[in-house]
Model the fold of this input.
Amino acid sequence: MEELRPAHRREKLPLYDIVVTIANQLVYHAGEINQMLSIYRGEAWEEGEEVEENNVSTEGHRVVPPWRAEK
Done:
């Protein structure tokens, strides 16, 4: 696990670091897919729902996304 192996951009890293990096990427993208599925299913962005993204609260900023606006 500590032996240096070829990685991206011609660098060499321990196998442990390569596996952890790949696992983090898979978890991150799975979260993105889950978010898109929630929006598609109508389970996200409920009217009046308060959300927090990147530690910035949306409380008091009830802006409906353009794709949710009534037509």
The chain has one helix and four strands.
